[in-house]
Amino acid sequence: MDKFVIDGGIPLRGQVVISGSKNAALPILLAAILVDGEVRLSNVPHLRDIVTTLNLLALLGCRAEFHGDEVLLHSCDLKPEAPYDLVRTMRASVLCLGPLLARLGTARVSLPGGCAIGARPVDMHLRGLEQMGAVFELEDGDIVGNCDGLHGAHIHLDFPTVGGTEHLIMAATLAKGKTILENAAREPEIQDLAEFLNTCGAKISGHGTSVIQIEGVESLHGTSYKVMSDRIEAGTYLVAAGITKGDLELVDCPVDALEAVISKLRAMGMHIEGDGSNVRAYVDGPLHCVDLTTRPYPGFPTDMQAQIMALMSCSHGAGIITEGIFENRFMHVQELCRLGAHITLSGQSAMVRGVEGLKGATVMASDLRASACLVLAGLAASGRTEVRRIYHLDRGYEQMEVKLSQLGAKIYRERE
Ligand code: EPZ
After folding, report:
1. How many domains does the chain contain in total?
2. Which residue is catalytic, options 62, 115, 200, 253?
3. Does 57 reside within a domain?
4. Could you give phi then psi for residue 230, rounded to 5 degrees?
C-alpha cells in the first residue's frame, strides 16, 4: 500500500487543470450498456474507479479501450452477470442492473455491501425498477432480476438518491411508454448523464429539477460525448488554496456546479473570482469558521464536508458542521485531531474550534474524501505528515501528488 509524505506550511501557487468528473463518468460508462453502437467519451479521468468500471464492462461483454483521456466502448455481445469481486470494490457497479434488464430482460448483480461512510442500501433503486416491471430475488448475495421488458411508471422517490435517480433514468430510456421520476436528485452529474443519453437518441426532460420525465424509445445509437469537469476535485483545490494561504488558478472549473461551496468559502473570507471556467482563489487575511449542513444538490455537497472541515480546523472562531446525507461520514475527525485540530462530535454534528496551526503527524485515510481532507491538513500543518492507505485517494483524484507538486507542495508518494 502507498502513503503520502508531506512537508507542510508552503503556500500553493500556480495553475491546476481540473480533470473529468468521476461521478459523471461512472454512470455514463455504465449507460453505454444501453447503446447499440460505438460510444466515444472524452475527458475521462484516469482513476481506479474508472478502471474498475471498464473491467466490469469487459466482463459484461462490452469492448472497452482507454487511450489518453478518451474511452471507446461497444456493447457487442452482452452477458447478464456482474460478479461480487468487482461490485464489492465499487458500489456504483450496481447501476449496471437496470441497463442489463432493459437490454436482456435478465441480470444477476451482486448486492453491494456498505462502506466506511454508511450502509448505503439500494432499496429505492430496486423499488423503482419493480414499478417498471422487474422481479427480483436474492440468491447467494446476488440480486437476480427478470422482466418481460420494462414499462414506464410514475415513481416517487422517498429521498433524492443520486444513484437511484441515475439508475431509473437509464432503465426508463428503453422502457415502453413514459416514466416520471418525482423527488429526483438534481446533481450536475445526473444532468450530464441525461445529456449524454439524449445525444444517443433518448428522450429525457426535466433533468436538474426534481421531476424528470423519460419517454422510452426502441433503441439508442452511438455517440461522442465530453464528460463534465469534476466539481468535487475543483472544490478540493479551492480549499487547498485557502488552507495553504496560497493563490491558485483553476482551469476547467465547473463554477456553476459549485455555488454552495464557493458561497461558504467566501463567507469564510476567501477570494474566489473568475469568468467562465477559469477561477482564481486566494487569501489575503484571516479565515473564519462558519456553520453548514450537507444537503442534496443544490445544497452544500456531502463530498466536500471533510475538506471544508480541514480548512475550518485551522481558521478563526468555531463552526458546526452537520452531515445531512450519510450516517457515518466523520471518520476523518479523529485523524484531524491527531494533527492538533479541536473537533467534538455530537450525533450527526461536529463542532470545530479553529486552532492557530496544525502539527504534522502520521494519519490513516478511511475513505476517498477523508483522504483528501488529511492531505489538505498535511499541506497546512507544520512539519511532516504521513497519510497512509492512500489507495482510497487514488479512486477519485487524478495524480493528486503530481498536481500538488507542480503548485509548490512538498509531497511524495512512498511504498508503505
Ligand atoms: C453518490 O452516491 C456519489 N457517488 C457519492 O460520492 C455522493 O456522496 C452521494 O451520491 C451523495 O451526493 C457516485 O456518484 C458514484 P445516494 P450514492 O444514493 O448514489 C441512502 C464520492 O466520494 N439511500 O444519493 O450512493 C444512502 O444510504 C462518493 O465520490 C437509501 O437509503 O448516494 C445515503 O444515506 C461518496 N436507499 C443517501 O440515501 C437507496 O436506495 C444518499 O445516497 C439509495 C440511497
Report:
1. 1
2. 115
3. no
4. -85, 110
Contacts of residue 67, defined as CB under 8 A and 6 or more positions apart, other chains included, come to none
Identify whether 112 is part of a domain. no
Centroid of ligand 1 to alpha carbon of 246 (angstroms): 32
Render pLDDT for 256-269 as a digit per residue (tens, 0 to 9): 999 999 999 999 99
Calpha distance 279→272 (Å, rounded): 7
Q: Which domain holds residue 334?
A: 2-16+229-415
Asked if 103 and 81 touch (Cβ cutoff 8 Å), the reply is no
CB of 309 closer than 8 Å to CB of 336: yes
Determine, yes or no, domain membership for 205: no
Domain membership flag for residue 376: yes
Copy the grid coordinates of residue 130.
Answer: 419493480
Is the CB of 136 within 6 Å of ligand 1?
Answer: no
Candidate of 23, 126, 190, 331 to mutate for ligand 1, largest count of ligand atoms within 8 Å of Cβ: 23
CATH classification of the domain holding 351: 3.65.10.10
Q: Helices (H) and strands (E) in the chain — how many of each?
A: 14, 24
Question: How does strand 81-82 pair with strand 106-110?
Answer: parallel
Residue-wise pLDDT for 311-339, tens only, equals 999 999 999 999 999 998 999 999 999 99
In short, whether 123's Cβ falls inside 6 Å of ligand 1 is: yes
25-34, 164-173, 271-280, 399-408: segment of lowest average pLDDT = 271-280
